[in-house]
Amino acid sequence: MTYHAITSVLREVSEIKTASSLQRVKERCRQVLAALNGHGPMISTGEAAEILGVSKNTVKNWLTQKGIARAERTAGGHLRFPLSDILDLKNEMGAAAARRARKKLDVPRAASSDDFN
Description:
This protein has 117 residues and is mostly helical. The chain has five helices and three strands. A three-stranded antiparallel sheet has the order 1-3-2. Strand 2 and strand 3 form a beta hairpin. The longest helix is centred in the C-terminal third of the chain and has 23 residues.
């Protein structure tokens, strides 16, 4: 993936003709560097909101509250989040919601075969 991404960016560099194409190449360079630094794919605020099932404003408000600490800003000032952080947050939210629902409804955990041995 990294080799392909780098060659793709190099190809784009050779085709820069406008300011918007320069911005696009800068963004791709940031994505490649993020991948090389172990951040993995970076996603937009809207994509993060869709994954989490909340609004974009909620994602921005959670930036410091929920530990989305590796958010970065693009050259245009837009936030980008590591997909892995957003997926981890979604998993945490799901587990917490399930615990709250069980507690609220006073539902015991599901029985397993170990309970009958």
